[in-house]
Amino acid sequence: MAATQTPTMLKLGDEQLAITHPDKLLWPDMGITKLDYVQKLAALAPYLLPHAENRYLTTIRWPEGIGGISFYQKNCPKPVPPYVRTAMGGTINYVVLDSLPTLLWLGSLYSLEFHVSCESLSDPLPDRWILDIDPSLEVEPRIMEAASAVSDLLATLGLDAVPKTSGATGVQVVMPIERGPTYDDLRAFGKFVSEYLAAKFPRMFTVERLKKNRGTLIYLDYLQYYPGRTLAAPYTPRARPGAPVSTPLTWEEVRRDPKPADYHLLNIEERLRQRGDLISRLPKQRLDRVLQTIASL
C-alpha cells in the first residue's frame, strides 16, 4: 500500500509541525512508521533531552528508513523553524537540541540517531567520562561480562558508573563527573583502565586500534574521548533492525546478561516509566585523587 501523502499536523504549543509521508515505514521489521517514530520521540524527550541539550550534536538521517542511504549531519538543516536555536562551534552551525519541538522537527527530517558530546557548548571541560566496550563479533556473548569487569575495576577505585547499551552491539560505561579534569586527563584515565583490563583479561580485551588485528577480542576504546567528538546519546534510537534504543541499565541487570536488542522503541516507554533515568540519579564522581595516583605511577 502506498504511503499516505497528506501531511499529519502536530500542534506543539504555539507551533505546528507538518509530518510528511506519515505512513512511510522507517523500521519495516517492526512496523514503525514515520508518524509512529515522531510520537515515540515525544515519549523519549524527557529522558533524551537532558543528555543532549547545550551539547555538540551529530544526527544521522535515513530519508528512506533503515534500509536506505544515510548521511551524518552536523550543520543545521535549512530552512530553520523559528523555535530552533543554533550555536556556532568552529565553522559548524549546530542545532541546539533543547526542546521538544526541536527534537520532533529533527525526527520529521528522518534523524534516526542522535550523538552528543561529553562537554557543553558553553564549557570546554567534560562533565562525563565514557568508555566504549566494542565487540569484534556481531554477536558477542561476553559483552555483559566485559561490562561487569569494568565495573569491578571502577569499584576498587571508589568510583561508580552506569552501563548502557550502545543500541548497536556494544556497551558504553557512562560516569557523570565533577567538572575539572580535562579531556587529556580523562583519556589518560581511560588508557589506564583499558590497559589494566587488557593485561588482566588477555583472552577477553584488547586495546588494538586496527580491527583486523583484534581477532575475537573486545576492544576497549578510550581514544574516542576528544573535544567535540560525539557518541550515541542515552535513549537515542539506532537505525538497525529491531529499532534498538541506547538504554542505561543497572549493574544487577548486567549480571543477568541481557541482550542489547532487548531494549527498543516498542518497549522503552514502559521501562522508563518503571526505572526513570538511571544516569541522572548517579552522583557526579570526583576523579582528582584517582588521576593524581595514576599520574604518579
Automatic annotation (TrEMBL):
<dbReference type="InterPro" id="IPR014145">
    <property type="entry name" value="LigD_pol_dom"/>
</dbReference>
<dbReference type="InterPro" id="IPR052171">
    <property type="entry name" value="NHEJ_LigD"/>
</dbReference>
<dbReference type="Pfam" id="PF21686">
    <property type="entry name" value="LigD_Prim-Pol"/>
</dbReference>
<feature type="domain" description="DNA ligase D polymerase">
    <location>
        <begin position="33"/>
        <end position="278"/>
    </location>
</feature>
<protein>
    <submittedName>
        <fullName>DNA polymerase domain-containing protein</fullName>
    </submittedName>
</protein>
